[in-house]
Amino acid sequence: MLTQRTVLASVIGFLAAVLVPLAVPMLLPVASAHDTLISSSPATGESLEQAPKTLELTYSDEVLNLSPVVRLSNSAGEEIFTQTPAVSGNTASIDLPALPADSYRVQWRVVSSDGHPIEGTVDFTVTVGAETTDDADTATDPASPTAAADSPQPEPTPADQAESSPAEQEDSGLPSGMVLAGATLLLLVVVVLLVLRTTRQRAGRGRDH
Q: Are 101 and 126 contacting, i.e. CB atoms less than 8 angstroms apart?
């Protein structure tokens, strides 16, 4: 006759063989699903003679267009702007204002394709910049009809929501893999308890006879 321990071991082995292969694929993406920045233009650490006109960030997968944010600051830590870039597929891009010679830091934040916010920085340097001494004299010369048109315009002040919104996109629920694993464990416990109860009842009936 099958002993209580033999029956229990058989049930546990069967459930493990069936349910574990279903749960493992759901758990694996939890640790490695976040997208990463694979390139940028300008590239991090790049030194440019002339100021770039646009910033382009390329990621390892398509990012979600959920309140992405790009902040640009100079070497003194002064914020130049904080704005929302345009997202298309795995690329986020934004137009840059005319930048003088200086070192700059781009701080970006987007929502990864798995729904989790990711962020990082890109540093670059402009050696000559968009303005020269002649340009400054022209901008202050009232006789020049194009002085006002050539003068770079300040960027508008960004809304506070542009910076705070990405944090609100964080996934507060449990990953589906963890939910499946918990359900599997609960089912396993229930089955083991039922087997133990049935085995004990049969053993008690055998002793009665």
A: yes
Phi-psi region of 77 (alpha: psi -120 to 50; beta: other; left: phi over 0): left
Residue type (1 letter), 165: S
CB 166 within 8 A of CB 110: yes
Beta strands (DSSP E) in the chain are: 37-41, 46-48, 54-59, 64-74, 79-83, 86-88, 91-95, 100-111, 117-129
Structure tokens at 84: 């929302």
pLDDT in tens, 72-89: 999 999 999 999 999 999
pLDDT digit string (tens) for 147-166?
444 455 555 554 444 444 33
- Which tokens go with 104? 């700059």
**pTM as predicted:** 0.52
Rounded-to-integer distance, Cα 74 and Cα 51, Å: 13
